[in-house]
Amino acid sequence: MKRARHATIYDIAAEAGVSIATVSRVLRGEPSVAPAKRERVENAIRLHNYRPSSAARKLAGTVTKTVGIVLPRLFNPYYAMLFTGAQEKAREMGYALSLFPWSSLDMESFDPALLLAERCLEGAVVYLEYLPPADKDRILHFLKRLKEFMNVAVIGCDLSEYGFPGIFINNAALALKIVRYLVSLGHERIALIGGSEEDTDPFRRDAGYLEGLREAQLPFTESYRVWGGDTPESGLLGLNGILDGLKPSFWPTAVIALNDLVALGCFSAAAAHGLSLPGDLSVIGCDNLVSAPYLAPPLTSVDLHQRRIGARAVEMVISGESGIEEAEWDIVVRGSCAPCPSRG
Amino acid sequence: MKRARHATIYDIAAEAGVSIATVSRVLRGEPSVAPAKRERVENAIRLHNYRPSSAARKLAGTVTKTVGIVLPRLFNPYYAMLFTGAQEKAREMGYALSLFPWSSLDMESFDPALLLAERCLEGAVVYLEYLPPADKDRILHFLKRLKEFMNVAVIGCDLSEYGFPGIFINNAALALKIVRYLVSLGHERIALIGGSEEDTDPFRRDAGYLEGLREAQLPFTESYRVWGGDTPESGLLGLNGILDGLKPSFWPTAVIALNDLVALGCFSAAAAHGLSLPGDLSVIGCDNLVSAPYLAPPLTSVDLHQRRIGARAVEMVISGESGIEEAEWDIVVRGSCAPCPSRG
DNA sequence: TTGTATAATGAAAGCGCTTTCAGAATCAGT
DNA sequence: ACTGATTCTGAAAGCGCTTTCATTATACAA
Hints:
Two copies of one chain form a homodimer. Chain A has three domains: 9-57, lambda repressor-like DNA-binding domains (434 Repressor (Amino-terminal Domain)), CATH 1.10.260; 66-169 and 308-326, Response regulator (Rossmann fold, 3-Layer(aba) Sandwich); 171-303, Response regulator (Rossmann fold, 3-Layer(aba) Sandwich). The first copy, chain A, is 40% helix and 15% strand. Chain A contains twelve helices and twelve strands. Chain A has helices at 9-16, 20-27, 35-48, 54-60, 77-92, 112-117, 136-149, 171-184, 205-215, 232-245, 260-272, 306-319; strands at 66-72, 96-102, 123-128, 151-156, 166-168, 190-193, 225-226, 254-257, 282-284, 301-303, 324-326, 330-332. In chain A, α5 packs across α12 and α10 packs across α11. Chain A starts with 8 loop residues before the first helix and ends in a 12-residue tail after the last strand. Chains A and B meet through α4, α5, β2, α6 and α7 of A and α4, α5, β2, α6 and α7 of B.
């Protein structure tokens, strides 16, 4: 490709008239270098604009100062924020972060090879929404194997029972809180849109949703629960499905969307059915995207503090912590949820 | 950290009873290996679940099969799409892609060190919205230096006059086309929101905007041109500024937003001023985010085909092409632009 | 057969750095 | 001035792989 040669540690050593060992020492900030030599080395480095090769360092060194993060579909801003938080913290701790994107959320293409190939990782944080029963063994095996070589933290779900530390999102508690909130607004017909039917996580949204219903002595209406992806389209399709299948008097008065994108899709579906928000229908999203406050009506959402999660996760990985933590979140109330119309 | 040892090429060689050279050969798919031995090696690899160390490969190899991409603020889905496209293409071509995020679009924190440290990159694609006059020399110098070591392609702006290949977005043509579109709808008071005042790129939005105005024999109204960032907030502030500073009879009837996020902010500002969209005000965005079709009204936007740009850029970098290309784009008409009310 | 071109293989030399390890230099203390 | 402790420093041995290069095995022709 290109032939220009980078300056190497030898060039610097020669320039400064010392051995490469000494150069290496000042590079890593060891104190045991005579001030005079240190300065000469530093000058040489500056002169040549020298940067040590990360590959060589990783190969030679015992600590590589690099961690990895595996994330699905980066174009969902949610993951991007997770990444950003991780990135910032890693940098702050003097680490490099390399990203391993997954092509799909469903575990199909879960390719451990990538991570494993990066022999030089000191740790990895992997995102896992939940443990899909079908791929459970495969994923667990991979994670276990990974753990032989580096620290790992999983974010998203709680895999502590398998010995994996990390940060999980208590979606059940979250859903419960949301249901309560909606109930407090007088809603009795609450729909839940999005999520995978095969998600059997104890902390899954459904659990909290159901509990909330029970708690408020509300019946569970099968048709109010629709599964789906995490895109606006899913939201549109999902809510349309509900609305089209029921006579208006049975329409839900509130919907809990998997995330803000899904919520947006619900906005569309509602509009298409002549429902005005939040007068006729309340909707609450999740993720608190930057656009949430600007929607019409401003979307009530829940802030998962993704950045903080990402940051905390790399912190755990780097310092080798082994606990499991529950992510904090807040419902940020904006204008998309209103008192139930029938009682308003 | 962890002490488990990865299998090395020596382990495999021993297991298969061949030399490491042979293992290396089958690893890289060289044909000159006896089928019998090849199979033994492959079995050994499978047995040990062996993965070559990327660090070692990079150090030893002449080709590293890795390219980098430097992108600002990943949480704007626009960049995430660029990345995704790049990622996919890289993978398709058997390359690894490493991401170097920039903390801010303004070049403040443009830190070449990161890239340079990754000695093992065969190429890099760097995103540059435009060449900020203030940092021009610094950036150019960095790019030049980078080019001594690897192929580089810049996406975003046209730096071909400095010898850098890449893909640029002809924002001028884009803006011109948009203005024409808006003019064809009867609009005569068209605002342009977002962008940096110090952008002097010949292909910048303003150029096309001005030309479009001239072409339609429309005056340039200073207060219709507001600068700003690329967030919804910028859009809100920007349009509010315009609206608040002018009596309604001078309000623009159409606004061109820097991107969809800014457009969304404009939606808010319009609503706050009692303007209904698109009846009273047309707005057009850019980037065609996944949420665009779901806004109310569905946002007319321009599709930059970011994925394609990302893909093409890594392609250029990998195959060492040196041309400059103009990105294609399409206006995707949805519901946020309507005929001008005053003549409707 | 014998000779020669061809294919397959391994030994060994790096790639650029980190890290013992032992020797050199410096510094107290007596 | 001499010893032992302390601080610096460089030689050298890897880290796990790729890549010559020379060697050996195999093929085919004469």
